[in-house]
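Q: I have 434 residues here and want to know how they pack in 3D. Can you give me a structure?
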Amino acid sequence: MNLHHLLERRRAAGKPVRVALIGAGKFGSMFLSQVPHTPGLEVPVIVDLDPERARDACRTVGWDAARIAATTFTKDGAAATGGDVEVIVEATGNPSVGIRHARAAIAAGKHIVMVNVEADVLAGPLLAEEARKAGVVYSLAYGDQPALTAEMVDWARATGFKVVAAGKGTKYLPIYHDVTPAGVWGHYGLTAAEAQSAGMNPQMFNSFLDGTKSAIEMAAIANATGLDVPSTGLLFPPCGVDDLPHVMRPQDKGGWLEKSGVVEVVSSLERDGRPVFRDLRWGVYVVLEAPNDYAADCFRQYGLKTDSSGRYAAMYKPYHLIGLELNISVLSAALRNEPTGQPQDFRGDVAAVAKKNLRAGEMLDGEGGYTVWGKLMPAVESLKTGALPIGLAHRVKLTNDVAHGAVVRWADVEIDAKDDAVAFRRAMEAKFSR
């Protein structure tokens, strides 16, 4: 609660917090838009595959010519680790590239804020351990839903409450798991031409729809908080904010959950497609249990929505502002030496699941594509199954047929064991297997 005060002291001392951004897409651009309005924060280096696009992004978000002229725009990721940069923001969205950038940052003694949750879920527990040993911060990105949820879980536990469930909202129907980029825009109420004119990537937006992004984000939350993963995958119960304490409680108490202490995503749509009343599509939540009758009475006295027993209540945040809020992570790392969420264990994993009957010789096209979607699994079950992580299910060839709805296994694909991301993931599996 004193980040602004700490930053003011750094600014007054002539020691601004200096950040390198890797990836000037939507999230990165939203972060960049806040930089001119945050005295004491500077971004001297921006790395992007298209440096001119990155310059255009800076102009679009309001950077003046002088600030742009003073910034290095480059394709070279190594530029991010040089000089007096303190914090590196990895916002590429590519899991293999993200692992490489994170390890380079850690080796150079820089804090790393991992916007790239795909990389975090693929190998975050081992990356975080490397960072801790090196004395730097590895952090989830504030403004994105995993860090916001982890914050709410921490708040609940630090105030003495038992966390029953935590997660986010999204738009979900069971049929979405098989949607491909060719059919995605109809589910967003757009035509293909409208989406193209807005520069919207169909595969990326399809990953939000087909359940993959939700699985990735819940795995990140589980790994950061120690909450469990549902044994059969996410349920996506339809639920509005007023019903969170009723729906998000254990089955033996009248709710949907197999047990207390899990991550879960609530849907903004009823199963017949009708909108849920007061949905949480853009927000995050935590359901907590009163430890005693006195606390339960306080829930009622202070207006919290509870279940019929009065023992289960919910807190929620209706919106998240992604990159507009990223300063919290950057400043927390630089000024407090603390992450805004960080993997502590390997509890949740995201496996590639066939969207159709796949044949040997076909190429997988990864998150949000035509061939597979990502299913949340307990990490122990993923390892036992030999499941192929969704983060490595891109541009790999099948060696076996895989039936529609089946988990793709390592044994079903050609994998280059010498690939850096593959080797690091395998090292994490060995480290955290139990």
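Q: Anything worth noting?
A: The radius of gyration is 22 Å. The first helix runs from residue 3 to 12.
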